[in-house]
C-alpha cells in the first residue's frame, strides 16, 4: 500500500479522471495473485446511524454526479426531495430539529468535519415546499380497508403518510386543536416555524387523502372500542404531553409549571406570566426550550441540573444557544422543596450534588453533599425533568407501570402476546428522537399493509458498514463544511418567534453535498481505471455508470482495490 500511495503523490494528483492518467498505463504487470476484483456495496455510516434509514448517500451522490451527467441542480434538488420522501414526510422539519446522529458517524469527520447532512436535508425540504412538490404513491392500487390513527404527531402522521403511499385511506384523531403533536406544542417556533414549514409539510400529507380530525380525543370523544370495530387496523401514536412532577413540598403553587405544560401554552399563543426570575429544573431539550422561552418573556432565567454539562442530554447546539441568550446554568444542583407565600412560590430550597457511581443509564449518579443547602428566589418554577403520554383509555395496553410494548413489526404486545390489529409507535413506547418516531410510523405502515394483503414480512437488511479505515482520505480534496449562520441575539429578542438558524444558500448546499465521500459506493472517480496497467477495467459509456472488469486481462495485482477511495472494490 505504501508504494502505491507514493506513486500517486509522484504523479501529482488523485489518480482519477482529469489527472492526466499514468505513463505506464499501456504496460503489463506480473501476476501477483489468483484473486480478482469485485464490487461489494457497503452501508455508509451516515445511513446506518439514521434511525429511519434515510437514503443519505444516494442523495449526496446525485450532486456529485450532476455535472458529469449534465443534470441541472434544479432537477437534482427535485430528485433529492423525492428520494428523502421515500422514507420521511418531514425533510424540512427534521432538517431543523433532528440532532443529526448521521453526522456523528460521518467518515468525513476524520478529515475536515462531517458533511452538513442536516442542513442539506433542510435545504432540500425547503425546496420541496417552495416548489409545491407533491408526494408520489408507490402504485395506482387503492384498497377498501380504512385505518385509524391516534395522534397527529410525527409517528402518527408518518404512519398515515406511508399508508397513503400504499393506497390506504386513514383517519387521524388528534386531541389538540391542531396537528403536529410535540412538533407543534413542544418545540418553540424559533426552532421550527409552524406556518411556513410544519403546516406546509402536513398539508402535503393531507393532499394524499389523509383525513385529520383535531380536537377529537380518543377515549373521551370517541371510544377506542369503536375504532377497533370500524377500522381494519389502528395505530396508536400518543405524544408525551404530560410533564412529570418533582414530588417536592410546595409544588402545588400556581406559578409552578411542568416544561411540557409551559411550552404547550406558549406555543398555543397564550401569554403566561412567569415574572422576572425563572428557575428551570432539568437538562434535556424541554428544559433548554422552556428556559429560552422564559428569557424571551423578559425573565432572568437559571437552569438547575443535578449532573454536569457532560451528562446533559440536550442538543449541544441548543445549550450553546441558551448560553448566548443569557440563560444561566447551575450544575450539580437538585431541588429539595418550594417555599410559598399564599398560593405562589417565592423561592426554592436546593442542595449541591456530587457524582457517584454510574446508574442504569450509564451516567454517574448524583449524590447529595451534606450541609450544602441554599435558597434560590424565584417568580416561577418550570419542572422539565421528564414527560410521558396521557394513557387514559389505553391503560389496558400497558405492561404494568411500563409504557406500551410492541414487537419488531410495531404490533402491540400484552403479556408477551400480540394484540391483533393494533400497532403503536413514537413516545407512547419510549421518549425518543423525532426521526425515531417517523421510522416507527413507517415500519408500522409497512406491517399493516403486509398483514392486510397477506404478504410475508419484509425485514430491512443492510450490507456491512464501511468505517474510516477502509477509506482513502488523501484522495479527497480538503474542504471545510459551511458554518451555520444564525440570527444575532438582539434580533432574536426583537422578534421572539424569528427562526434563529438560517438555511444554507443553494450554492452552499451544493458545495457541502460535494464533500460527500460516497462511502462504499462508486462515484465515477476513475481511480481504478487509472491504476490498472493491464486494460482489465473498462470505463462506462455514460457518466455515473459502472466500470466493468475484463477478468481475462486481470492479473490480480490488487491496485484497483487498494486505491479505490470509497472502499467499493474488494479482491476475492
Write up what this structure looks like.
By secondary structure, the chain is of the alpha/beta class. It has 4 domains: 1-41 and 521-572, 2-Layer Sandwich (Alpha-Beta Plaits); 48-133 and 472-486 and 497-510, no CATH class; 146-241 and 389-453, FAD/NAD(P)-binding domain (3-Layer(bba) Sandwich), CATH 3.50.50; 247-257 and 272-373, FAD/NAD(P)-binding domain (3-Layer(bba) Sandwich), CATH 3.50.50.60. It has 19 helices and 22 strands. A 7-stranded mixed β-sheet has the order 4-3-2-5-19-18-17, sandwiched between helices. A 5-stranded parallel β-sheet has the order 7-15-8-9-10. Strands 11, 12, 13 and 14 form a 4-stranded antiparallel β-sheet that branches. The longest helix is centred in the C-terminal third of the chain and has 20 residues, at 434-453. The chain starts with a helix and ends with a strand. 44% of the residues are buried. Residues 1-29 have low confidence and may be disordered.
Secondary-structure blueprint:
Layout: H1 2-10, E1 37-39, H2 45-49, H3 56-69, H4 73-84, H5 91-97, H6 101-104, H7 117-130, E2 146-150, H8 154-166, E3 169-173, H9 182-185, H10 194-206, E4 211-213, H11 224-230, E5 233-236, E6 242-243, E7 256-258, H12 259-267, E8 277-281, H13 285-296, E9 300-305, H14 316-324, E10 328-331, E11 333-341, E12 344-358, E13 364-368, E14 374-377, E15 380-383, E16 387-388, E17 405-406, E18 411-414, E19 417-424, H15 434-453, H16 489-494, H17 506-513, H18 527-531, E20 537-538, E21 548-549, H19 559-563, E22 569-571
Parallel strand pairs: 2-3, 2-5, 3-4, 5-19, 7-15, 8-9, 8-15, 9-10
Antiparallel strand pairs: 1-22, 6-16, 11-12, 12-13, 12-14, 17-18, 18-19, 20-21
Helix pairs in contact: 3-4, 4-7, 5-7, 7-17, 8-15, 12-13, 13-14
Amino acid at each position: 500500500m505504501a508504494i502505491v500511495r507514493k506513486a500517486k503523490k509522484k504523479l501529482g494528483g488523485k489518480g482519477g479522471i482529469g489527472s492526466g492518467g499514468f505513463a505506464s498505463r499501456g504496460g503489463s504487470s506480473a501476476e501477483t495473485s489468483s484473486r480478482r476484483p469485485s464490487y461489494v456495496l457497503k452501508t455508509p455510516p451516515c445511513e446506518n446511524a439514521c434511525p429511519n434509514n434515510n437514503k443519505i448517500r444516494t442523495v449526496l451522490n446525485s450532486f456529485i454526479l450532476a455535472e458529469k451527467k449534465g443534470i441541472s441542480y434544479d432537477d437534482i434538488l427535485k430528485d433529492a426531495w423525492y428520494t428523502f420522501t421515500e422514507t420521511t414526510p418531514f425533510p424540512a422539519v427534521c432538517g431543523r430539529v433532528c440532532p443529526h446522529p448521521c453526522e456523528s458517524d460521518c467518515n468525513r469527520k476524520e478529515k475536515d468535519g462531517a458533511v452538513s447532512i442536516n442542513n442539506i436535508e433542510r435545504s432540500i425540504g425547503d425546496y420541496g415546499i417552495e416548489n409545491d412538490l407533491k408526494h408520489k404513491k408507490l402504485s395506482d392500487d387503492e384498497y377498501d380497508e380504512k385505518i385509524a390513527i391516534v395522534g397527529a404527531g410525527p409517528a402518527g402522521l408518518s404512519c398515515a403518510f406511508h399508508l397513503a403511499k400504499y393506497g390506504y385511506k386513514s383517519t387521524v384523531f388528534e386531541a389538540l386543536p391542531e396537528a403536529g403533536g410535540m412538533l407543534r406544542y413542544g418545540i418553540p417556533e424559533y426552532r421550527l416555524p409552524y406556518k411556513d414549514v410544519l403546516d406546509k409539510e402536513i398539508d402535503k400529507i393531507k393532499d394524499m387523502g389523509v383525513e385529520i380530525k383535531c380536537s377529537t380525543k380518543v377515549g373521551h370523544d370517541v371510544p377506542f372500542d369503536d375504532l377497533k370495530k370500524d377500522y381494519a387496523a389502528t395505530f396508536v401514536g400518543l405524544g408525551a404531553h404530560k410533564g412529570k412532577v418533582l414530588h417536592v413540598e410546595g409544588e402545588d403553587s400556581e406559578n409552578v409549571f411542568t416544561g411540557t405544560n409551559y411550552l404547550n401554552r406558549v406555543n398555543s399563543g397564550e401569554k403566561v406570566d412567569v415574572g422576572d426570575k425563572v428557575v428551570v429544573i432539568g437538562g434535556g431539550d424541554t428544559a433548554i426550550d422552556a428556559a429560552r422561552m422564559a428569557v424571551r418573556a423578559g425573565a432572568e432565567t437559571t437552569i438547575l441540573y443535578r449532573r454536569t454539562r457532560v451528562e446533559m442530554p440536550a442538543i449541544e447546539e441548543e445549550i450553546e444557544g441558551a448560553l448566548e441568550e443569557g440563560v444561566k446554568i447551575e450544575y450539580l444542583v437538585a431541588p429539595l422543596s418550594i417555599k410559598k407565600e399564599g398560593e405562589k412560590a417565592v423561592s426554592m430550597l436546593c442542595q449541591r450534588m456530587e457524582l457517584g457511581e454510574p446508574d442504569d443509564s450509564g451516567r454517574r449518579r448524583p449524590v447529595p453533599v451534606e450541609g450544602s443547602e441554599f435558597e434560590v428566589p424565584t417568580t416561577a418554577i418550570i419542572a422539565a425533568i421528564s414527560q410521558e403520554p396521557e394513557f387514559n383509555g389505553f391503560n389496558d395496553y400497558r405492561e404494568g407501570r411500563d409504557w406500551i410494548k410492541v414487537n419488531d413489526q410495531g404490533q402491540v404486545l400484552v403479556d408477551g402476546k400480540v394484540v391483533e390489529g393494533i400497532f403503536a409507535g413514537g413516545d407512547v413506547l419510549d421518549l425518543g428522537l423525532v426521526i425515531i418516531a417517523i421510522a416507527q410510523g413507517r415500519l408500522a405502515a409497512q406491517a399493516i399493509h403486509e398483514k392486510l394483503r397477506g404478504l410475508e414480512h419484509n425485514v430491512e437488511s443492510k450490507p456491512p458498514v464501511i468505517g474510516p479505515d477502509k477509506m482513502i482520505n488523501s484522495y479527497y480534496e480538503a474542504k471545510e463544511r459551511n458554518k451555520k449562520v444564525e440570527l444575532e441575539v438582539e434580533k432574536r429578542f426583537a422578534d421572539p418567534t424569528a427562526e434563529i438558524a438560517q438555511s444554507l444558500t443553494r450554492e452552499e448546499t451544493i458545495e457541502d453535498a460535494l464533500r460527500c465521500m460516497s462511502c462504499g459506493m462508486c462515484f465515477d472517480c476513475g481511480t481504478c481505471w487509472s491504476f490498472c496497467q493491464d486494460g482489465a477495467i473498462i470505463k462506462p459509456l455514460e457518466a455515473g455508470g459502472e466500470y466493468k472488469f475484463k477478468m481475462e486481462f486481470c492479473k490480480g495485482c490488487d491496485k484497483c482495490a487498494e486505491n479505490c477511495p470509497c472502499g467499493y472494490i474488494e479482491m476475492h
